[in-house]
Amino acid sequence: MKKKLLIVDDQYGIRVLLHEVFEKDGYETYEASNGKQALNIVKDKSPDLVLLDMKIPGMDGLEILREIKKLDLDTNVIMMTAYGELEMINEAKKLGALAHFPKPFDIDEVRQKVREHLLV
Questions:
Q1: DSSP string, the chain
Q2: Contact in structure between 114 and 22 (CB atoms under 8 Å)
Q3: Is the pLDDT of residue 120 over 70?
Q4: Average pLDDT for residues 19-46, to the nearest whole number?
Q5: For residue 30, which of 11, 10, 45, 12 has the smallest C-alpha distance?
Q6: How much is the pLDDT for 19?
Q7: pLDDT for res 73
Q8: CATH of 4-114, one of 3.90.950.10, 3.20.20.220, 3.60.21.10, 3.40.50.2300
Q9: What pLDDT is recorded for position 119?
Q10: Which of 30, 51, 68, 111 has a CA positioned 20 to 30 A from the CA of residue 13?
């Protein structure tokens, strides 16, 4: 069975890039551009891993992370951020995020983190 991956980012180009890369790697991949979409996908699809942008208009990444963990404690989350805000990164880890990576990112490093956390 394919591992399920949810990509949550308000930037279309990043979602498409990550979607294409991880689909080619054999994952079942979903996309969301906001918190509401992300939470609906978590409820409906129970992804194994969520790549979650820290800065999303409306509901920020920390709020989305809190809600994801309320819905499913077993859903793994890796945060993405273009901002080196150490306080937010530390808060995300306290809330259960496994890791984070900066944007812009090296796609091979992101792929490696995903593989590590999905044990593929």
A1: -PPEEEEE-S-HHHHHHHHHHHHHTT-EEEEESSHHHHHHHHHHH--SEEEEES--SSS-HHHHHHHHHHH-TT-EEEEEESS--HHHHHHHHHHT--EEEESS--HHHHHHHHHHHHT-
A2: yes
A3: no
A4: 97
A5: 45
A6: 98
A7: 76
A8: 3.40.50.2300
A9: 77
A10: 68
